[in-house]
Specification:
This protein is an alpha+beta fold. Helices cover about 15% and strands about 40% of the residues.
Amino acid sequence: MEFSVRIPFVEHLGFKLHKFEGGEAELSFDPGPDHLNSFDVVHGGASMTLLDVVMAHAARSAQPELGAVTIEMKTSFMRAAKGPLRAHGRTLHRTATLVFTEGTIHDAQGRLCAQATGTFKLMPRLATSPGSAQPLNRISTD
């Protein structure tokens, strides 16, 4: 399954999308040596990015044409993450513009490595031409 929008950082990390529907999303991540910390386990920043992306996709799954901007995120790490990882995100509650989500990361043995909650604001995507970027100050926060 392909991501519905291009996210260069996600491409760099090598995340793969497996589910994107009905308030849920699922991604996999096979971390390489560049994704590890000094303890030779997945860096917390890579894990948090995986959780952010899976929860944002769960938030957007009901209206994929919209963008989702992270408003807040809380992460708890239960165990060191190693090897291939699977992340699952789901919508907990939705208003007209906000989506409240939760996400989890499990290792290949099915053990819970990290859990997060996140709040996302749904926004229309700005039209851009290839290679151009829209300034963030042009995005309405109303």
